[in-house]
Design brief:
With 156 residues, the chain is α+β, with helices and mostly antiparallel strands. It has helices spanning 8-12, 26-36, 45-53, 96-105, 124-128; strands at 15-18, 56-62, 65-74, 79-87, 115-118. 26% of the residues lie in helices and 22% in strands. It holds the Pfam family Acetyltransf_1.
Length: 156
């Protein structure tokens, strides 16, 4: 477990960023990702559990309550993919997303990587502050994409 102590201002206000998965509020994370996010609607709970288990996770907490989250899929040697990044609505607008991305990119286990990647529809301004740019060679990248089926709760 690595606890970030690089932001006294947030710490003094009761915030913490930690990679300790035992602190994560799975239900809060699942509810946001599967019901509110634009990128993971319909995500099955068992898939999220597996994703968390097999990823490096960063939780933002305010007095032990989940305030934000991000996952990093990585081999810790050459590559990291940042995904599922969010700050819950009641905690937005005070710089937590910047602190989160800073904490991820400065994490000791993620130094010296050759490539970082992520996908975003609306947070280019945030990520550009940390050196992220458009793909330098998008013609070299390929994907196989299968979105989750969103299940209407009334039909269940």
């Amino acid at each position: 477990m690595y606890v970030f102590m690089n932001a006294d201002t947030f710490l003094k206000k009761g915030y913490l960023i930690s990679t300790d998965k035992s602190l994560l509020d799975f239900n809060s994370i699942y509810q946001y990702l599967s019901e509110e996010s634009y990128w993971a609607k319909g995500l099955p709970a068992e898939r999220l559990a597996m994703a968390i288990e097999n990823s490096m996770c960063f939780g933002i907490f305010k007095e032990n309550r989940q305030a934000g989250f991000a996952r990093v899929v990585t081999d810790k040697a050459t590559f990291a993919y940042i995904c599922d990044v969010f700050v819950l609505p009641g905690y937005r607008g005070i710089g937590l997303s910047k602190w989160l991305i800073q904490s991820i990119t400065e994490h000791p286990e993620l130094q010296g990587l050759r490539r970082w990647s992520l996908a975003t529809a609306d947070a280019h301004g945030l990520y550009s502050q940390f050196g992220f740019t458009q793909l330098s060679r998008p013609e070299n990248w390929m994907e196989k994409f299968k979105p989750y089926q969103v299940i209407n709760k009334e039909e269940q």
